[in-house]
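Team,

Forwarding the record for the chain on the shared tracking sheet. I've put the sequence and predicted structure together so nobody has to dig through attachments.
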Amino acid sequence: MKKLNKNFIIGGGLFLLFVIFTVLVKFVGVEPIGPLGSKIGLAGLNELFMLSSNNKVWDIIGDVIMVLALCGALAFVVLGVVQLIKRKSLKKVDKNLYLLAGLYAVVVCFYVLFELVVINHRPILENGELVASFPSTHVFLVTTLVFAALSQLSKFYIPNKNTMFIIDDIAIILETLLVVSRMLSGVHWFTDIIGALLLSASLVFIFNGVTETFINNKDKTLD
């Protein structure tokens, strides 16, 4: 019997933690500490880590980092289109690009899900209205897209370890700056950040497991 890839085990465990954490945020320690008396889960923890209130500069920094991450994801989409045009066959497009497209679809599904299923509202109003806050969209998108991209770059496109070290360091700096910016911007609760990190990490590990399971070394290409 083939041994289960450890990435699936880690990813599955992290996803279970995310589910448990989400339930806690929804039902435990719920108090009306949000704007308009909105009820927020794990209120004591969230109040303890509320560092700022609506800092526009940090909010813009977070937006810029998210745009960079989305541009990186778009670059893989463009790569797939270029390969399709050059190779003139869907079958000849790198398999990992199809898996990336699948991950992007999963990310969109989770985004829509948490727009419809409100766990917590933001600590600020947007245009005078309460807005869904959990998990942090910026942290969820950036963490998932960036670290999935890094795994693909190192395995399939940039074999030079020194180059990857530099790219990895830049990614870690941007990720750290993003988390700090979302906390200092005052537009998210602490639990929004933790939830996003747990969900993102679980998806990235599972994605890496899928990549390693379904793509052989001989499929690493390429133009």
